[in-house]
Amino acid sequence: MSSTATQQDGRRSAAVLTVLCAADFLVVLDGLVVAVALPTMQEALAIPAGALQWVVTAYVLCFGGFLLLGGRLGAMPRS
């Protein structure tokens, strides 16, 4: 393998790693935003404390569904 091909593989690997790290960071940040917003949602919408878990559950189910959809779209063959 030539030096140029090795450098291109290294750049591609670095780019893939950067995208994966950014995606992981956004997932963690997204979950944190929901946790921080819960008290404000409870106050603004007059949600009882016991029902807040349903808000989190609904969010996680929607997020998981979109995560599966995104994975499926990412795995589609290119034409």
Task: Write a short abstract of this structure.
This protein is mainly alpha-helical and 79 residues long. Helix content is 84%, strand content 0%.
Average residue pLDDT? 87
Order of helices and strands: HH
Helicity, as a percent range: over 70%
Radius of gyration: 20 Å
Strand content: under 5%
> What are the segments in which pLDDT stays under 50 over at least 5 consecutive residues?
none
- Counting DSSP H or I runs of 4 or more residues, the number of helices is 2
Classify the secondary structure makeup into a structural class: mainly alpha
Task: Report the span from N to C terminus.
Answer: 28 Å
Quick one: biggest sheet? none
- Got a strand count? 0
Shape: elongated
What are its keywords?
79 residues, mainly alpha, 2 helices, elongated
Describe the structure.
With 79 residues, the protein is mostly helical. Helices cover 84% and strands 0% of the residues. It has two helices and no strands. The longest helix has 43 residues. The model has no long low-confidence stretch (mean pLDDT 87).
